[in-house]
Amino acid sequence: MRAESLDPVLLRTFAAVADLGSFTAAASAEGYTQSAVSRQIAALEEVCGVELFARGARGVRPTPAGEYLLPHARALLERLADTARALDGLRRLDAGTLRLGAFPTATTALVPRALARFRARHPGVRPSLREGTTERLLPMLEAGDLDLAVVSTHKTPDLAAADLVHLLDDPLLVALPAGHRLAGRDRVPMAELADDPWIVADTPEAVAALRARCEAAGFVPETPLRASEWLSKLGLVAGGLGVTLVPALAAGAAATDGVVLRPVAPEPLRRTVYAAVARHARRFPPVTAFLDDLRAAAGPQPGSAATTSTSSSASG
């Protein structure tokens, strides 16, 4: 006998008849006609190849074969009920997991705000977080290792992801030493930084992204100082050794003495931040709920400012 031939509907009717001792009573309890119950028991007996009930004038009672099958049927029905309850819990966001990815500066404020809101609303769902660059996160999303990733166009102008949800446009600020000749300006023209050393992460993507922005301003940047972490970059800036670009998303995460941040002129530099949703997770309840929290976290925050004399200790 194949396990899948045991129809749970037939097993439920079988258990009801055994409990109530009557086809008629089982039919009333389960919402069937008496003839429908008779057909279901006959179908189960055909599958099992044995008689399950002894019919008598005062009702029915299980045969030895029926007595043997009854505890197994009850156990299977209880497992099915447990499965249904687990699925209901997943739909209600009472349980489950949420696998997230985010680029580093998104984990300084945006993602923590969203996660705190999500946890307060759905404490039964367990989130996990993987930090990485957009270039690393998108393949993980495509492979099904993540349900959702917060990504940006900072180093990858054209994101080839199936489902992108716009979260915000993040200005890029220039970080200058406090004693820099342009530190007193409200906005700093990129072209006037052509002779400054630029600090950039030592990856082809980061160097290419900086080069594209500088070439649009009419110069090729000199990049003798390569550093990936924002603590390192800002330390070099504070020491008067060069300038770098800082996402506004990370600007308020920590303060660095000796560094000022200024918007760029004539046109502000921006990157777009998206939530990329994996194909398998388009209808996954935790993802749908977390997207709402990301949108809320991406909105204007009290006390936020684009121009400040502090900077961030995050990277990416």
Automatic annotation (TrEMBL):
Domain HTH lysR-type: 6-63
SUPFAM superfamilies: Periplasmic binding protein-like II (SSF53850), Winged helix' DNA-binding domain (SSF46785)
Cross-referenced CDD domains: PBP2_LTTR_like_6
Pfam families: HTH_1 (PF00126), LysR_substrate (PF03466)
PROSITE patterns for this protein: HTH_LYSR (PS50931)
Keywords recorded for this protein, A-Z: DNA-binding, Transcription, Transcription regulation
Superkingdom: Bacteria
Family: Belongs to the LysR transcriptional regulatory family.
Identification of the protein by name: LysR family transcriptional regulator
Species, as recorded: Actinomadura yumaensis
